[in-house]
Each structure stands twice: as C-alpha cells, then as structure tokens.
Amino acid sequence: HHWYKNRKSPVTNWPVLGMLPSLICNSDQLFDYFTHDLLDSCESGTFKFKGPWFPSLDFVLTSNPMNVNHIFSKNFLNYEKGFEFREIFEPFGQGIVTSDSDIWKIQRKSLHAIMVKNNKYLNYQDMVFRHVLEKGLVPVLEHAVKHGTEVDLEDVLQRFDYDNICLLALGFDPKALSVSFPVVPSKVAFHDIEDCLLFRYVLPLCFWKLQQWLQIGAEKRLTKSLEIADRFLYDCIAMKREKLREKTVVEDDEFDLVTALLVEEENLSVSGKVTDKFLRDTAYNFMAAGKDTVSACLSWFFWLITMNPSVKTKILEEIELNLPTRYKEQNMIMSFTSEELNSFPYLNGALCETLRLYPPVPVNHKTAVRPDVLPSGDTVDGNTRILISYYSMGRSEETWGKDCLEFKPERWVSDKGDIVHVPTYKFSAFSAGPRTCLGKDMSLKQMKIVAINLLRNYQVEMVEGQIIKPGKCITLHIGNGLKVRIKKRVV
Ligand code: HEM
C-alpha cells in the first residue's frame, strides 16, 4: 500500500526513513536537487517532502509565484518565522530576522526609519562606502596588480562587505580588507556561528539540544564563537555610549546604526527600550542580514560576465558612454548618485540576472500558523515548515521562458532602453511583501559602484581549472572561492 500510494513521487519515500536518503545523497547540490529533482516534476511548483517518521522533518517546498504572493503578502499574518526557527536561530535574540508579530513590527519600524528615511544615515552610508572603497578595496587590488599575485576575489569582496557592515552598524572599522589579509576574530566568529546554525537547521531538535547540553561538537564551537561575537558587539556599544556622553552634537561621519538608535530614541517606537541588549540584537541581525550578500552576488557576477564575454563588452561600452564627464580620467575612484546610476540599465540587467540565477539567499523559511490552502491547490497543516526556493523560482521555465538557464541581461532592458521591472513575487531575490529586504536599494547601488570601478580600471582574469559551484552555506557563495589575476586596464 505504501509503494502504491507513493508510486508517482519523483523520489522514493521509504518506510520509516521517508525521503531522507535522497536528500542526504544530494546534499552536495541541494538547490539543484530542489529545482530539478523535486519541483520540475510537480505541475503546481510545490512538493511535499516527507522526512523520517520520528522525529518529523516534513516540509512543503514551493517555487510557485502565486504561492509566494499568498505567503508573503496576501495571507502574510498566517505565515510566520515560527517558534522552532527562533529556537534554532537563538543567537539572533529578539532581532528583525527571526522575530514575528509585535517584536518584528518594532524592529522593522526603527530600522526602516533609519535605513530608508534618515538622510543623515543615508549620507553616512555613502561616506562609509567610499571609505572602504578607497582605503580597502583599491589598495588591495593595486597590490595584487603590482605583485602579479593570484587573489581570491570572493574573499576580497567578503572582507570588503565585513568592513562596510561593521562601520554601518557599529562605526568600527575592523580593517579585514588590507594587503596582509589579517585574521579578524569577530569575522571568523560570525562565520562559525552561521555554520553551526545551519547544522541545527538540518538536524532534529532533540539531537542538537543534547549536543548543546553536553557542550560537544558544533554546539561547543557555537558557544565559543558566540562569546567572541557578543564581546565584540557589547564593547562597540559601550564605546558608542561613552562617546555620546562626551558630545552634544554627533558629526555626520559618526552616525552609525547604534548611534542613530541612541540619538533618535525618542522619535522611534522604542522609546525607553534602547537597552544594550536591544542594541546588540538589532546590530547582530543587521550584520547577519547584510554581511555576505553583496559579496556573494558580486562574486557570481564577475564569474558570469567572464563566462559571457559579449556581456562584459556591452557593460564596458555602456560605462564609457554614460560615465559623467568628471570621471573620464582613468584610475579615479568613482562614486555615483542613485540618479546617475539609472543611466546604466544594462549593468542593472546583468546584476538582476545574477540575482535571478544565484540569489544570495537561495531559500527562505516560513511556518504556517493555521491550516491553509495555497493558490496552487496544495493544502498545508498548521505548524508546517514551508521552504520557498528563490533559487528554483529564478530557474523556472514558466516564468522566464525556454532560455531560463541562460545569462541574458537583455531581459531586464525594454525596447526603449529602460529598466524592466518584474513583480517581487516572481523575482524574489530580495523577498516580497511587508518583510522585503531593507537593504535592497543600498545593495544595488553599492554593487553597481563596485562593478563600474573594477571593470573600468582593472582586467579581472580567472585562473584556469577552477570548479565553480555553490558551497554549503546559508548564503549562496562560490564554494571554493574565485581565484583571479588582476591587471590594470588600459582604456
Ligand atoms: C544582494 C544583497 C541582498 C540580498 C539578495 C538580500 C536578500 C534578503 C532577503 C531574501 C530577505 C528576506 C529574509 C527573510 O525573510 O528571512 C532579506 C531581509 C533583510 N535584509 Fe537583505 N539582502 C541583501 C542585502 C542586505 C543588506 C546589505 C542589508 C543591511 C545592511 C540587508 C538587510 C536586511 C534586513 C534588515 C532584512 C530583514 C527584513 C525583515 O524581516 O523585515 N540586506 N534580505
């Protein structure tokens, strides 16, 4: 009866073990397995994965845009991160990424007021970005050009991201991006925490809870790394409080997130609640959300344009054509306003195409509060884990056509040369609905500026013989990095 019931399933549903063996066998290429082995065979773009009988690891996997619209917008209140998710990601505390209901609303309101609405903070963002470009990225690239050394471009960009996010959140420059490629303990700790949390996510709760109690394996590593990260965060917060006590006016170049929260306390919905723990949780979540995403996207972008030389040529032509006259001289560090960046629709298309094929957040998590019927016709029970595969959505033939696996920036440029906008429930790299990414505009702006500076001034050549594939991580990195040689480009 069991075999008969499951005869149409694209993977074997074993008695007792469920579909776990197939998942384990494909853990090396999980997102392709979700896309091609599970979802491609379901007309509704939704697959019910059966885990072992005990403990239950069942989940509903979907890449159907109508379901995404329903889960993230139309029936938003029925789909939360959920208690189990918060338990697993407990180092995030009561921050925006893992919270629901009122706690999430307070976090979202305060972060939105600062990251999107506060002009002083937006100016600070631009200042920090220019600083990291000028004092971090360019000297490291120049060093690589001068010595002809091979560099891991992904590592360079991750360090760039880390310095940028630390300055944005805490006003502290860890100088992770410098020619000596130093080991930065807080950066290593954040990375380790992410690694250990991924373990927790795929293991049954009772298993990692036991490990935690015994303080062995990944849980032991997690405790140590969390101590390092917390010490770093609380030290930075104490320094900020001390600085503010000494000053009456905060300069524009000191207006980081923690300072902004302290200064703007009365105007935010958190009056009287800006405790050290609140600041720690807010900063931790902000850093976790923004720390590796830009570098992941840029790494895939440089690899994709190297594999597609005609795209690279077109981007360079667009840069030369639309570059403001003040930058016609070579070797200058170029920064742009958002309006100026609108003159690069093809570059925008190439970045969107990268995000479509390699979304830095490949899968999102939701929990159904009450039973529901999805627009695809699939039913979900209350307390069901739902995984939304952004990776599979970007590779759906139904949404993107027969050439969905090809890298074609042209699909994002209209016949008139304008940017084509795709609804967020179809192109969900930054998620959709009320929980859309708060760093979207900033990230797109920063990625364009890095791309223009690098492409115009340097020639980035891939080292032969590399295997480029996603690594096992919460963020979609290139597993083994991206080894390149950098040369100066002559215009
Ligand atoms: C290419 C770059 C980025 C991508 C693709 C991206 C993608 C996403 C996605 C998919 C989510 C939804 C996650 C979820 O629901 O759990 C998200 C949320 C978020 N992102 Fe980003 N992100 C990027 C960069 C950034 C940066 C640089 C920051 C901050 C400096 C940031 C801040 C946030 C925050 C605060 C949230 C939580 C929003 C909420 O739950 O209300 N993101 N991002």
Automatic annotation (TrEMBL):
UniProt cross-references to Gene3D superfamilies, sorted A to Z: Cytochrome P450
InterPro entries membership: Cyt_P450 (IPR001128), Cyt_P450_CS (IPR017972), Cyt_P450_E_grp-I (IPR002401), Cyt_P450_sf (IPR036396)
Cofactor(s) the protein needs: heme
Keywords: Heme, Iron, Metal-binding, Monooxygenase, Oxidoreductase, Signal
Origin superkingdom: Eukaryota
SUPFAM superfamilies, per the entry: Cytochrome P450
Family: Belongs to the cytochrome P450 family.
Family annotation (PANTHER family): CYTOCHROME P450
Protein known as: Cytochrome P450
Organism, scientific name: Hibiscus sabdariffa (roselle)
Lineage, uppermost ranks: Eukaryota, Viridiplantae, Streptophyta, Embryophyta, Tracheophyta
